[in-house]
Amino acid sequence: MNAEKKFAERFKDLMDEKGVNDRELERATGLSNQVIAFWRSGKRVPSLHSLWILADYFDCSIEYLVGRVDFE
Q1: In this structure, is the dihedral angle defined by the CA atoms of residues 9, 13, 15 and 21, taken in order, positive or negative?
Q2: Predicted TM-score of the model (pTM)
Q3: Over the stretch 61-72, which tens digit does the pLDDT of each residue have?
Q4: Which end of the chain is more exposed for a tag (fewer CB within 10 A), N or C?
Q5: To which H or E segment does residue 37 belong?
Q6: What are the tens digits of pLDDT across the range 6-55?
Q7: Could you tell me if 31 and 25 are in contact, meaning their C-beta atoms sit under 8 angstroms apart?
């Protein structure tokens, strides 16, 4: 599985686990709703800065987010 798809899968799973939608994630993190939708679809991957924000929000490691490890 390529990096974009692995990230998109993890990202969607974490959003489901936390029970948030795109708008709620946008409000909580300040990240754009449009870019969140791109990430979820696997069309783009986040910058390092955005990965830090997401890792803090979801309380997981960047390595987990990008699929390098299978534990949070």
Answers
A1: positive
A2: 0.91
A3: 999 999 888 876
A4: N
A5: helix 33-41
A6: 999 999 999 999 999 999 999 999 999 999 999 999 999 999 999 999 99
A7: yes
Helix (H, G, I), strand (E, B) or coil at 1: coil
Cα dihedral 44→33→66→60 (10° resolution): 170
Residue carrying the six token digits 């990430």 = 39
Spatial separation of the C-alpha atoms in residues 25 and 33, rounded to whole Å: 8
Cα separation, 23 vs 37, in Å, equals 10
Which residue type sits at 39? Answer: W
The letter for the amino acid at 68 is: R
Location of structure tokens 């029970």: 19
Task: Quote the tokens at residue 51.
Answer: 């990965």
